[in-house]
Amino acid sequence: MAEVTYRRGDRDDRPWGRWEVLDTGDGFAVKRISVDPGAILSLQLHHHREEHWIVARGRARVTRGEEVLELDRSQSVFIPVGTAHRIENPGEEMLELIEVQIGDQLDENDIVRLEDRYGRR
């Protein structure tokens, strides 16, 4: 059985915006991620989960390994386990993503920050 410590309704404000847990189950969690205009999340990787991101509103610049992708509304991207990744909002409106995490450990402890504009580790 997977370890999922997220609970529906969990949320957190971050320097770049906020996230909220929409649903969880055995081995999965679904989050809404809202990224402020001009903001960027840390370059990070996860050892225990893969992620699927779907752009619901706005435009996303996604780093996935060595690739940089530009995604518009309704486009999606898959982030494999262990792959360095980040999201940036290059636009002037709020960016909203739906993130589906799948793995055997789903919590904030499975974040390895490689680079962070806001000085977090």
Automatic annotation (TrEMBL):
Keywords: Isomerase. GO terms for molecular function: isomerase activity. It comes from the Bacteria. InterPro entries: Man6P_isomerase-2_C (IPR001538), Mannose-6P_isomerase_type2 (IPR051161), RmlC-like_jellyroll (IPR014710), RmlC_Cupin_sf (IPR011051). The keyword Transmembrane helix does not apply. PANTHER family: MANNOSE-1-PHOSPHATE GUANYLYLTRANSFERASE. This is Phosphomannose isomerase type II C-terminal cupin domain. It comes from Benzoatithermus flavus.
